[in-house]
Write a structure and sequence with these properties.
Elements (H helix, E strand, L loop, with lengths): L1 E6 L6 H7 L1 E4 L2 E4 L2 E4 L6 H10 L5 E3 L3 H13 L3 E6 L7 H13 L3 E5 L4 H16 L4 H11 L3 E6 L4 H5 L16 E8 L2 E9 L1 H14 L3 E8 L3 H12 L7 E5 L2 H7 L4 E7 L1
Parallel strand pairs: 1-2, 1-6, 6-7, 11-12
Antiparallel strand pairs: 3-4, 3-5, 8-9, 8-13, 9-10, 11-13
């Protein structure tokens, strides 16, 4: 059988992980001397409350190589192959840690895939991999399917400020928006695995309108989630705005974890999806 591994930035809920049989390896967030495992030791509400009052920006780090080795070895010891689909290697060292671990354990039976994305766009890739694996598909077929979907994964987000991305060193091409925002809200995406600008909106309401426009521009989608960071009411309204356009499609509400929240800051809202 093929086992699917992803990381905590995929924003998969516990029940989704269990139902799909996906193993999630958490990244780490450090506030001063305190280290927390993403989506394990901190809820989203707890994290954003800390972020708002912390005098320093928290630090994030990829899982240790040993954490991936333990997971990979456990699956290989039962005779299972592994496909690991992980956060973009351009914003995290997670893919590198997993690749090192795979070579150490059994590189011939473990595929490590750079999703070039994160949040539920990554989660949807992991869920599709798990669905295919349950049909009895072999490792090569599962990995091929995931790689074919990577170019179809999308993240669109509106954030209150670029400060967190800039201080955290993840601003990428969105640096072009610095110094020109004033009272505007930055709109960002992940493009070729790194943060890129989508423009700006004057205020929260215009940002939400713009997100809806950008989603509709992509046409048909096969999976869709509304993401937020401590902004549940806005996320619910955003879901209501687009629900009528996607009859029969379950639209998930997903709160980002501590790692993504470190760079977006509180109040982030947006969409993650796969183009059909």
């Amino acid at each position: 059988m093929v086992r699917i591994v992803t990381d905590s930035t995929a924003d998969l809920a516990d029940d989704q992980q269990r139902a799909a049989g996906i193993t999630v390896v958490p990244l780490n967030v450090r506030f001063g001397d305190e280290v927390f495992k993403d989506h394990v030791d901190l809820t989203g509400d707890d994290f954003f409350a800390r972020l708002k009052t912390s005098p320093q920006l928290p630090k994030t780090s990829q899982p240790a190589v040993g954490a991936f080795e333990e997971v990979f070895r456990r699956h290989r010891d039962t005779g299972d192959d592994v496909v690991a689909v992980l956060i973009s290697g351009k914003v995290s060292g997670t893919v590198g840690a997993a690749s090192t671990a795979a070579k150490s354990v059994d590189g011939e039976h473990i595929d490590v895939i750079d999703s070039l994305t994160t949040s539920m766009a990554l989660g949807f890739l992991a869920l599709e991999a798990a669905r295919l694996a349950k049909t009895g598909a072999d490792r090569a077929a599962v990995a091929e399917r995931v790689r074919s979907l990577v170019p179809k994964a999308r993240v669109l987000a509106a954030i209150d400020t670029l400060t967190y991305l800039e201080k955290g060193g993840r601003i990428g091409r969105a640096r072009a928006l610095l110094g020109s925002l004033l009272n505007f809200k930055p709109l960002i995406t992940l493009q070729d695995g790194e943060v890129a600008p989508l423009g700006r909106a004057r205020g929260r309401l215009q940002a939400i309108d713009r997100l809806v426009e950008l989603l509709q521009r992509d046409g048909r989608v096969s999976n869709l989630a509304v993401l937020h960071g401590g902004a549940l009411s806005d996320a619910q309204r955003l879901k209501e705005r687009v629900a009528g356009n996607y009859p029969g499609l379950e639209i998930l509400l997903v709160e980002t974890g501590a790692v993504i929240g470190t760079y977006t800051g509180p109040g982030v809202i947006g969409f993650t999806y796969l183009i059909a």
